[in-house]
Amino acid sequence: MSVGETLLSKIIDANDVPALLRYQIAESDFPTVTERSASAFILDYADKNGGQAPSYATVVTEVPDFVYIPAVTDSYEYLTGKLKDGAGKRILAELINGSMAKKYAELSAGSFITWFTKELERVKMGTSVPLPIGKTLADRAVEFRAEYDKRKAGASFKLWKTPFPTLNAEIGGLYSGDIYGIMAESGRGKTYLSAVLIDEMLRQGAKVLVKSYEVKAYVWLARLFSIMTARDEAVSHADHAVKVGLPNKAILSGHLDDEMEPYFFAMLDAINEYYPGELILQAKSDTELTRTLADLDRELHIRPDIDCVVIDPFYGLDDVYGHNANKTAGGAAEQAARHFERIIGAHDVVGIFTIQASTERQETDEGTGHREIKLPKRDQVKTTKALLEIATNLFVFDAVDGNGRIGVEKGRNGGEGFTLDLVALMDYGVLREMPTGAEVAAQFLA
């Protein structure tokens, strides 16, 4: 008595030939010629007889070696799982004893691993038991109540605040399992805004993985050190009635003045204790920097405690320009966006990506020669519009002459069309909300 014969007997007794389709049972899943012949006959009989299954007597007459098992009570899911498990093992044996040795000899180590991984994924997909297409409202009601209770207790998801209280009031904050985009025109501060968000999350205890494809580690960290020290109001600014951080340009050039340098070195010595959270930085030119979404998925499996992933910029991923399975313009980038969405959801982390807006002509004021702040619009999203679709919020940003503005160009849960003016002394680590009337008055009283 085989699993295949047991399954086919159940189908005959239940007059349920569509079970072969529902559970994606292929003729090749059956291990013997007898079982494959019986499966083919049952399908052919149903096709010619209005979908009806043949009787067991008819099957045995047509396929004499077939063993009929009456009154099978095992579920389709169990029997299909056993059948496909056996099929998978046979395919793996054929792969190992067949083309694997040849590929191992022909390909480099990296290419062989890629080929073998794809083959294993193909076997896995072909031998998996299909899941139900969905759940009823009655099923969902039970799950919904359980999820509500978990959210009420704060155990279902994590919410991380941004450094902008007014923005938090509008959108709630950054939720685990959701994706947030940052868009600005070239050189207008999208990476800087991401660093400000990261600084805030680290202060809340988050573990953040950053992939910086365009900025090297020293430059990226120099910005973070300015932001950190600005939050600590470490330096008095001669031209502004605000406390600021260490000047970024002076850190980059290695020329902090004699008063600031000892403070900077002391901060570096204590950097491991500074943040409650943890920063894992992969930066441009680092050997650790990986460039595929498969790598990201693997890294999140290695570190399941990570709370947030930052991809800066999204088009730094090799997947964006990789194999275009659907043969449409921008298809690879769209598939990459969908794959990123699945990874973020599966690992229940905050996903942040930056993207460059297509550049529009900027007008300058004839009197001052300065341009005005202008936030990009959603139709300026480059690379793929799928990035707009997967984002819970798309933040747009611009800054000029010490002033900045952040806007919500897409708000799945509210906030769309919201804008917030900011103080943007970015060389000194300052990107914060404009002070309120009370704060301004306090500065003058001081």
From TrEMBL:
InterPro entries: P-loop_NTPase. This is AAA family ATPase. It comes from Paenibacillus agricola. The lineage of its organism: Bacteria, Bacillati, Bacillota, Bacilli, Bacillales.
